[in-house]
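Example 4.3 (complexes with small molecules)
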Amino acid sequence: MKLSERIADVEARIAAACARSGRSREDVGIVAVTKYVSTDTAAAAAQHGLRHMGENRWPDAKEKVESLKEGVEWHFIGRLQSRKVAQVIHHFSYIHSLDRMSLAEEIEKRASAIEQPMRCFIQVNVSGEETKAGVTSEELPAFAEKLNELSYIRVLGLMTMAPYVEDPEETRPVFSRLRELMDKLNAERRYREPLQHLSMGMSNDFEVAIEEGATWVRLGSVLVGNDNE
Ligand SMILES: *Cc1c(COP(=O)(O)O)cnc(C)c1O
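Answer. The structure with pyridoxal-5'-phosphate bound is encoded below.
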């Protein structure tokens, strides 16, 4: 499929999921995940109007983020090593994978040095799979509270990755649980401002995630393709 067709197809599916769940299309943002494609394809995606791009590893992202700056905001979505923060901080506007205090402190240090707050999502391991990153649901409230001390970190909301399953319907409880966790943090005023964003849903399960309240979906293969396929 051509890039323009993929984008149109995904757009129609997002609009349908919004309509089914009574949500407004403007409330769902797309992070185009470019990790499986070349810099040229990423540039073409930007030409097609995709303005938010995501990468999950700094070494692979470097060339793309350095060559694609104009009108593009980059989202760091993968496991982030503290020693990579110094580079990542200059090129990315959002970090979706805040999952531990040592990382938060490193981001705080680097962001305060350049006087630019970093927008972050707390990654939650809702499903409890051992291989998945993220704080557990039990750790989340205390973690969110501790982040109040870091003024250059601005938490926008929560992020999760659902287990990969054949039938995306099975991921629904993971997404609805993330939403409940955010509502509870807000009701208990754990964080200094209300959290308003849920980063959830990938190629395989984004429609279910939208029905459950996703405000950012992170789409790689379904949207921009995969050069390895
Ligand atoms: C790769 C990746 C995605 C996108 O994956 P697709 O299944 O290709 O849509 C989304 N989120 C994270 C954290 C990823 O690493």
